[in-house]
Protein backbone atom coordinates (compact mmCIF):
# COMPACT_ATOMS: atom_id res chain seq x y z
CA UNK A 1 0.00 0.00 0.00
CA UNK A 2 1.31 3.42 -0.92
CA UNK A 3 1.21 6.04 1.80
CA UNK A 4 -0.07 9.19 0.17
CA UNK A 5 -1.10 12.14 2.30
CA UNK A 6 -4.25 13.95 1.28
CA UNK A 7 -3.62 17.51 0.16
CA UNK A 8 -3.92 20.37 2.62
CA UNK A 9 -6.76 22.88 2.26
CA UNK A 10 -7.12 26.37 3.70
CA UNK A 11 -10.57 27.05 5.11
CA UNK A 12 -12.41 30.37 5.04
CA UNK A 13 -15.67 30.90 6.88
CA UNK A 14 -18.18 33.72 6.55
CA UNK A 15 -19.71 34.18 9.95
CA UNK A 16 -22.69 36.28 8.84
CA UNK A 17 -24.26 37.47 5.63
CA UNK A 18 -22.56 40.65 4.52
CA UNK A 19 -19.23 39.95 6.20
CA UNK A 20 -16.18 38.69 4.38
CA UNK A 21 -14.85 35.15 4.57
CA UNK A 22 -12.11 34.86 7.19
CA UNK A 23 -9.30 32.35 7.28
CA UNK A 24 -9.97 29.96 10.16
CA UNK A 25 -7.44 27.19 9.65
CA UNK A 26 -6.57 24.27 7.44
CA UNK A 27 -7.36 20.58 7.09
CA UNK A 28 -6.62 17.52 4.99
CA UNK A 29 -9.09 16.17 2.45
CA UNK A 30 -9.04 14.08 -0.72
CA UNK A 31 -10.84 16.66 -2.86
CA UNK A 32 -12.75 19.95 -2.72
CA UNK A 33 -16.14 18.42 -1.94
CA UNK A 34 -14.72 16.46 0.98
CA UNK A 35 -12.77 19.50 2.14
CA UNK A 36 -16.03 21.46 2.41
CA UNK A 37 -17.68 18.61 4.32
CA UNK A 38 -14.71 18.31 6.64
CA UNK A 39 -14.69 22.07 7.18
CA UNK A 40 -18.35 21.89 8.08
CA UNK A 41 -17.57 19.26 10.73
CA UNK A 42 -14.36 20.80 12.04
CA UNK A 43 -15.08 24.53 11.92
CA UNK A 44 -18.85 25.15 12.03
CA UNK A 45 -20.00 22.95 14.88
CA UNK A 46 -20.79 25.94 17.09
CA UNK A 47 -22.73 28.06 14.62
CA UNK A 48 -19.61 29.83 13.41
CA UNK A 49 -20.64 30.24 9.83
CA UNK A 50 -23.09 30.56 6.98
CA UNK A 51 -20.69 29.96 4.11
CA UNK A 52 -17.46 28.03 3.54
CA UNK A 53 -14.65 28.49 1.04
CA UNK A 54 -11.80 26.02 0.69
CA UNK A 55 -8.62 26.59 -1.28
CA UNK A 56 -5.92 24.02 -1.79
CA UNK A 57 -2.96 25.29 0.17
CA UNK A 58 -0.57 24.82 -2.76
CA UNK A 59 -2.60 27.46 -4.62
CA UNK A 60 -1.83 30.10 -2.03
CA UNK A 61 1.20 32.16 -2.91
CA UNK A 62 2.64 34.14 -0.03
CA UNK A 63 4.96 37.11 0.27
CA UNK A 64 8.47 36.45 1.55
CA UNK A 65 9.13 37.60 5.14
CA UNK A 66 12.58 38.77 4.00
CA UNK A 67 10.85 41.39 1.89
CA UNK A 68 9.07 42.89 4.90
CA UNK A 69 11.25 46.00 5.05
CA UNK A 70 10.93 46.75 1.35
CA UNK A 71 7.24 45.95 1.24
CA UNK A 72 5.79 47.63 4.28
CA UNK A 73 8.13 50.15 5.89
CA UNK A 74 7.90 52.77 3.15
CA UNK A 75 4.25 53.26 4.19
CA UNK A 76 5.26 54.26 7.73
CA UNK A 77 5.69 58.00 7.09
CA UNK A 78 2.81 58.45 4.67
CA UNK A 79 0.06 59.22 7.12
CA UNK A 80 -1.88 61.12 4.45
CA UNK A 81 -2.85 57.77 2.95
CA UNK A 82 -5.01 57.00 5.97
CA UNK A 83 -8.59 58.28 5.94
CA UNK A 84 -8.28 59.06 9.65
CA UNK A 85 -9.83 62.53 9.37
CA UNK A 86 -13.35 61.22 8.85
CA UNK A 87 -15.75 60.35 11.62
CA UNK A 88 -17.33 56.94 11.18
CA UNK A 89 -21.01 56.95 12.20
CA UNK A 90 -21.75 54.64 15.13
CA UNK A 91 -24.18 52.58 13.06
CA UNK A 92 -21.44 51.49 10.67
CA UNK A 93 -20.04 48.25 11.97
CA UNK A 94 -17.09 46.12 10.88
CA UNK A 95 -15.01 48.99 9.46
CA UNK B 1 -28.68 11.50 29.50
CA UNK B 2 -29.65 14.52 31.53
CA UNK B 3 -33.05 15.61 32.70
CA UNK B 4 -33.24 18.75 30.57
CA UNK B 5 -35.67 18.42 27.70
CA UNK B 6 -34.58 18.68 24.10
CA UNK B 7 -37.99 17.84 22.76
CA UNK B 8 -38.49 19.89 19.60
CA UNK B 9 -42.10 20.61 20.44
CA UNK B 10 -44.01 21.12 23.64
CA UNK B 11 -45.17 17.79 24.96
CA UNK B 12 -48.95 17.67 25.21
CA UNK B 13 -50.11 18.09 28.79
CA UNK B 14 -52.99 15.68 28.34
CA UNK B 15 -52.44 11.94 28.47
CA UNK B 16 -51.85 10.47 25.01
CA UNK B 17 -54.95 9.27 23.21
CA UNK B 18 -55.57 5.59 22.67
CA UNK B 19 -54.59 5.92 19.02
CA UNK B 20 -51.34 7.61 20.01
CA UNK B 21 -50.58 5.00 22.64
CA UNK B 22 -50.49 2.31 19.94
CA UNK B 23 -47.41 4.03 18.58
CA UNK B 24 -45.34 3.10 21.64
CA UNK B 25 -43.56 0.03 20.16
CA UNK B 26 -42.81 1.90 16.92
CA UNK B 27 -41.40 4.95 18.69
CA UNK B 28 -39.36 2.65 20.91
CA UNK B 29 -37.99 0.88 17.83
CA UNK B 30 -36.93 4.22 16.35
CA UNK B 31 -35.33 5.16 19.66
CA UNK B 32 -33.41 1.88 19.95
CA UNK B 33 -32.21 2.14 16.37
CA UNK B 34 -30.87 5.66 16.80
CA UNK B 35 -29.26 4.85 20.15
CA UNK B 36 -27.49 1.70 18.94
CA UNK B 37 -26.17 3.38 15.81
CA UNK B 38 -25.08 6.39 17.88
CA UNK B 39 -23.18 4.05 20.18
CA UNK B 40 -21.48 2.25 17.30
CA UNK B 41 -20.38 5.56 15.76
CA UNK B 42 -19.19 6.86 19.11
CA UNK B 43 -16.85 3.86 19.35
CA UNK B 44 -14.81 5.56 16.61
CA UNK B 45 -14.19 8.61 18.80
CA UNK B 46 -10.43 8.93 19.12
CA UNK B 47 -9.84 6.13 16.62
CA UNK B 48 -10.89 7.76 13.33
CA UNK B 49 -8.63 7.35 10.31
CA UNK B 50 -7.95 11.09 10.33
CA UNK B 51 -8.91 13.88 12.70
CA UNK B 52 -11.50 15.33 10.31
CA UNK B 53 -13.40 12.04 10.01
CA UNK B 54 -13.08 11.32 13.70
CA UNK B 55 -14.97 14.57 14.28
CA UNK B 56 -17.47 13.84 11.52
CA UNK B 57 -18.39 10.48 13.04
CA UNK B 58 -18.62 11.90 16.56
CA UNK B 59 -20.90 14.66 15.21
CA UNK B 60 -23.15 12.16 13.51
CA UNK B 61 -23.18 9.99 16.64
CA UNK B 62 -24.39 12.99 18.63
CA UNK B 63 -27.11 13.71 16.07
CA UNK B 64 -28.40 10.16 16.49
CA UNK B 65 -28.13 10.32 20.27
CA UNK B 66 -30.18 13.51 20.32
CA UNK B 67 -32.78 11.93 18.09
CA UNK B 68 -32.85 8.81 20.28
CA UNK B 69 -33.52 10.94 23.34
CA UNK B 70 -36.48 12.66 21.70
CA UNK B 71 -37.96 9.27 20.80
CA UNK B 72 -37.31 7.75 24.24
CA UNK B 73 -38.92 10.72 25.98
CA UNK B 74 -41.95 10.43 23.74
CA UNK B 75 -42.05 6.64 24.15
CA UNK B 76 -41.97 7.00 27.94
CA UNK B 77 -44.89 9.40 27.74
CA UNK B 78 -46.86 7.11 25.41
CA UNK B 79 -46.32 4.12 27.66
CA UNK B 80 -47.48 6.09 30.68
CA UNK B 81 -46.12 3.64 33.24
CA UNK B 82 -43.70 6.00 34.88
CA UNK B 83 -40.61 4.71 33.08
CA UNK B 84 -38.19 7.44 32.00
CA UNK B 85 -36.01 7.75 28.93
CA UNK B 86 -33.10 6.44 31.02
CA UNK B 87 -35.08 3.37 32.15
CA UNK B 88 -35.87 2.57 28.54
CA UNK B 89 -32.29 2.98 27.35
CA UNK B 90 -30.37 1.49 30.24
CA UNK B 91 -32.59 -1.11 31.84
CA UNK B 92 -33.84 -3.21 28.94
CA UNK B 93 -32.11 -6.41 27.84
CA UNK B 94 -31.08 -7.32 24.30
CA UNK B 95 -34.25 -9.32 23.60
CA UNK B 96 -36.31 -6.25 24.49
CA UNK B 97 -34.41 -4.05 22.06
CA UNK B 98 -36.22 -3.49 18.76
CA UNK B 99 -33.52 -2.08 16.47
CA UNK B 100 -33.00 -3.71 13.07
CA UNK B 101 -29.93 -5.96 12.84
CA UNK B 102 -28.00 -3.61 10.54
CA UNK B 103 -27.23 -0.92 13.11
CA UNK B 104 -25.83 -3.30 15.74
CA UNK B 105 -23.22 -4.75 13.36
CA UNK B 106 -19.66 -4.02 14.52
CA UNK B 107 -17.71 -1.11 13.04
CA UNK B 108 -15.13 -3.30 11.29
CA UNK B 109 -12.88 -1.13 9.15
CA UNK B 110 -13.82 2.32 7.87
CA UNK B 111 -15.48 0.82 4.76
CA UNK B 112 -17.79 -1.35 6.90
CA UNK B 113 -18.81 1.66 8.98
CA UNK B 114 -19.45 3.71 5.84
CA UNK B 115 -21.53 1.02 4.14
CA UNK B 116 -23.58 0.39 7.30
CA UNK B 117 -24.13 4.11 7.64
CA UNK B 118 -24.96 4.57 3.97
CA UNK B 119 -27.62 1.85 3.96
CA UNK B 120 -29.19 3.17 7.12
CA UNK B 121 -29.02 6.83 6.00
CA UNK B 122 -30.88 5.94 2.81
CA UNK B 123 -33.71 4.49 4.87
CA UNK B 124 -33.59 7.03 7.69
CA UNK B 125 -33.68 10.12 5.48
CA UNK B 126 -36.66 8.91 3.45
CA UNK B 127 -38.50 7.67 6.55
CA UNK B 128 -38.11 11.05 8.25
CA UNK B 129 -39.48 12.82 5.18
CA UNK B 130 -42.63 10.70 5.55
CA UNK B 131 -42.89 11.08 9.32
CA UNK B 132 -42.49 14.83 8.98
CA UNK B 133 -45.84 15.03 7.21
CA UNK B 134 -47.38 12.13 9.15
CA UNK B 135 -50.50 12.13 11.33
CA UNK B 136 -48.74 12.19 14.73
CA UNK B 137 -47.77 15.75 15.69
CA UNK B 138 -44.99 14.79 18.08
CA UNK B 139 -43.32 12.34 15.68
CA UNK B 140 -43.68 14.94 12.92
CA UNK B 141 -41.92 17.52 15.11
CA UNK B 142 -39.04 15.17 15.92
CA UNK B 143 -38.74 14.22 12.25
CA UNK B 144 -38.72 17.83 11.15
CA UNK B 145 -35.76 18.54 13.40
CA UNK B 146 -33.90 15.32 12.55
CA UNK B 147 -34.37 15.36 8.79
CA UNK B 148 -31.97 18.28 8.45
CA UNK B 149 -29.31 16.21 10.19
CA UNK B 150 -30.18 13.13 8.14
CA UNK B 151 -29.83 15.14 4.93
CA UNK B 152 -26.23 15.81 5.89
CA UNK B 153 -25.62 12.20 6.95
CA UNK B 154 -26.77 10.78 3.64
CA UNK B 155 -24.61 13.29 1.78
CA UNK B 156 -21.60 12.38 3.92
CA UNK B 157 -21.94 8.60 3.58
CA UNK B 158 -22.83 8.79 -0.13
CA UNK B 159 -19.72 10.83 -0.91
CA UNK B 160 -17.62 8.29 0.98
CA UNK B 161 -19.15 5.30 -0.83
CA UNK B 162 -18.29 7.01 -4.12
CA UNK B 163 -14.72 7.70 -3.07
CA UNK B 164 -14.10 4.25 -1.64
CA UNK B 165 -15.66 2.49 -4.61
CA UNK B 166 -13.98 4.61 -7.24
CA UNK B 167 -10.81 5.14 -5.22
CA UNK B 168 -7.77 2.90 -4.86
CA UNK B 169 -7.57 -0.83 -5.40
CA UNK B 170 -7.54 -1.33 -1.64
CA UNK B 171 -10.49 0.96 -0.89
CA UNK B 172 -12.53 -0.77 -3.59
CA UNK B 173 -11.69 -4.23 -2.25
CA UNK B 174 -12.69 -3.20 1.26
CA UNK B 175 -15.93 -1.48 0.30
CA UNK B 176 -16.99 -4.42 -1.89
CA UNK B 177 -16.33 -6.79 0.99
CA UNK B 178 -18.35 -4.58 3.34
CA UNK B 179 -21.28 -4.48 0.91
CA UNK B 180 -21.08 -8.27 0.59
CA UNK B 181 -21.25 -8.71 4.36
CA UNK B 182 -23.87 -6.09 5.19
CA UNK B 183 -26.32 -6.30 2.31
CA UNK B 184 -28.23 -9.12 3.98
CA UNK B 185 -29.30 -6.68 6.71
CA UNK B 186 -30.65 -4.02 4.34
CA UNK B 187 -33.98 -5.71 3.61
CA UNK B 188 -35.19 -5.69 7.21
CA UNK B 189 -35.39 -1.90 7.24
CA UNK B 190 -38.32 -1.82 4.83
CA UNK B 191 -39.85 -5.20 5.72
CA UNK B 192 -42.59 -4.34 8.20
CA UNK B 193 -42.81 -6.39 11.39
CA UNK B 194 -46.25 -7.53 12.56
CA UNK B 195 -46.39 -4.47 14.82
CA UNK B 196 -45.54 -2.15 11.95
CA UNK B 197 -48.06 -3.83 9.67
CA UNK B 198 -50.85 -3.19 12.16
CA UNK B 199 -49.79 0.44 12.52
CA UNK B 200 -49.52 0.86 8.78
CA UNK B 201 -53.04 -0.52 8.38
CA UNK B 202 -54.19 2.09 10.90
CA UNK B 203 -52.42 4.79 8.88
CA UNK B 204 -50.06 5.65 11.75
CA UNK B 205 -46.83 4.44 10.15
CA UNK B 206 -45.82 5.26 6.55
CA UNK B 207 -45.94 2.68 3.80
CA UNK B 208 -42.49 1.13 3.38
CA UNK B 209 -42.94 0.21 -0.30
CA UNK B 210 -42.54 3.86 -1.33
CA UNK B 211 -39.54 4.32 0.99
CA UNK B 212 -37.99 1.16 -0.38
CA UNK B 213 -38.24 2.53 -3.93
CA UNK B 214 -36.69 5.85 -2.94
CA UNK B 215 -33.90 4.01 -1.13
CA UNK B 216 -33.22 1.77 -4.12
CA UNK B 217 -33.12 4.75 -6.47
CA UNK B 218 -30.62 6.60 -4.29
CA UNK B 219 -28.45 3.51 -3.82
CA UNK B 220 -28.46 2.81 -7.56
CA UNK B 221 -27.39 6.39 -8.31
CA UNK B 222 -24.56 6.40 -5.77
CA UNK B 223 -23.30 2.91 -6.66
CA UNK B 224 -23.24 3.82 -10.32
CA UNK B 225 -21.04 6.82 -9.59
CA UNK B 226 -18.92 4.63 -7.30
CA UNK B 227 -18.65 2.02 -10.08
CA UNK B 228 -20.03 -0.55 -7.63
CA UNK B 229 -22.59 -3.24 -8.36
CA UNK B 230 -25.85 -3.42 -6.40
CA UNK B 231 -26.03 -6.99 -5.06
CA UNK B 232 -28.90 -9.09 -6.34
CA UNK B 233 -30.68 -12.15 -5.01
CA UNK B 234 -29.30 -11.80 -1.48
CA UNK B 235 -31.18 -13.66 1.26
CA UNK B 236 -32.31 -11.01 3.71
CA UNK B 237 -31.83 -11.51 7.44
CA UNK B 238 -34.39 -10.12 9.85
CA UNK B 239 -35.57 -10.46 13.42
CA UNK B 240 -34.08 -7.41 15.13
CA UNK B 241 -37.40 -5.59 15.11
CA UNK B 242 -38.90 -8.58 16.97
CA UNK B 243 -36.05 -8.79 19.48
CA UNK B 244 -34.07 -11.60 17.81
CA UNK B 245 -30.63 -10.07 17.51
CA UNK B 246 -27.17 -11.03 16.38
CA UNK B 247 -24.68 -11.84 19.12
CA UNK B 248 -23.17 -8.37 18.80
CA UNK B 249 -25.98 -6.49 20.52
CA UNK B 250 -25.40 -8.15 23.90
CA UNK B 251 -21.78 -7.01 24.01
CA UNK B 252 -22.74 -3.53 22.93
CA UNK B 253 -25.41 -3.22 25.64
CA UNK B 254 -23.04 -4.63 28.25
CA UNK B 255 -20.81 -1.63 27.64
CA UNK B 256 -23.61 0.90 27.10
CA UNK B 257 -25.51 -0.11 30.25
CA UNK B 258 -22.57 -0.98 32.50
CA UNK B 259 -22.76 2.05 34.79
CA UNK B 260 -26.52 1.89 35.42
CA UNK B 261 -26.40 -1.86 35.94
CA UNK B 262 -23.46 -1.70 38.33
CA UNK B 263 -24.60 1.38 40.24
CA UNK B 264 -28.41 1.41 39.90
CA UNK B 265 -29.86 4.90 39.99
CA UNK B 266 -26.47 6.51 39.53
CA UNK B 267 -26.61 10.16 38.50
CA UNK B 268 -23.95 12.72 37.77
UniProtKB/TrEMBL annotation, chain A:
EC number: 1.14.13.149
Gene3D superfamilies (alphabetical): Phenylacetic acid degradation B
Source organism superkingdom: Bacteria
Pfam family, one: PaaB
InterPro entries linked to this entry: PaaB, PaaB_sf
tRNA processing recorded as keyword: no
GO molecular function: phenylacetyl-CoA 1,2-epoxidase activity
Alphabetized UniProt keyword annotations: Oxidoreductase
Stored NCBIfam families: PA_CoA_Oxy2 (TIGR02157)
Protein name: 1,2-phenylacetyl-CoA epoxidase subunit B
Organism: Hymenobacter duratus
Organism phylogeny: Bacteria, Pseudomonadati, Bacteroidota, Cytophagia, Cytophagales
Gene designation: paaB
Automatic annotation (TrEMBL), chain B:
An annotated GO cellular component: cytosol
InterPro entries linked to this entry: Aromatic_CoA_ox/epox (IPR052703), Ferritin-like (IPR012347), Ferritin-like_SF (IPR009078), PaaA_PaaC (IPR007814), PaaC (IPR011882)
Any one GO BP annotation for this protein: phenylacetate catabolic process
Domain of life of the organism encoding this protein: Bacteria
NCBIfam families from the UniProt entry: PA_CoA_Oxy3
Name recorded for this polypeptide: Ring-1,2-phenylacetyl-CoA epoxidase subunit PaaC
Amino acid sequence: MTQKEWPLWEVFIRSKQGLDHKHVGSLHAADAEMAIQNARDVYTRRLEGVSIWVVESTNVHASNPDDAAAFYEPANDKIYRHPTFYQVPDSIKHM
Amino acid sequence: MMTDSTMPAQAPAAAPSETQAQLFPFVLQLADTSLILAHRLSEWCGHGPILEQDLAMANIALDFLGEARSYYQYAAELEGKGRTEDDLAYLRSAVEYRNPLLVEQPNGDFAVTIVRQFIYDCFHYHLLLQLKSGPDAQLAAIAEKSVKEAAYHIKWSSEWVIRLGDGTEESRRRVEKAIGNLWRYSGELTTPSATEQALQAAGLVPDYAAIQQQMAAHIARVFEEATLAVPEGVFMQKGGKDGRHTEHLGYLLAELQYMQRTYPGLEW
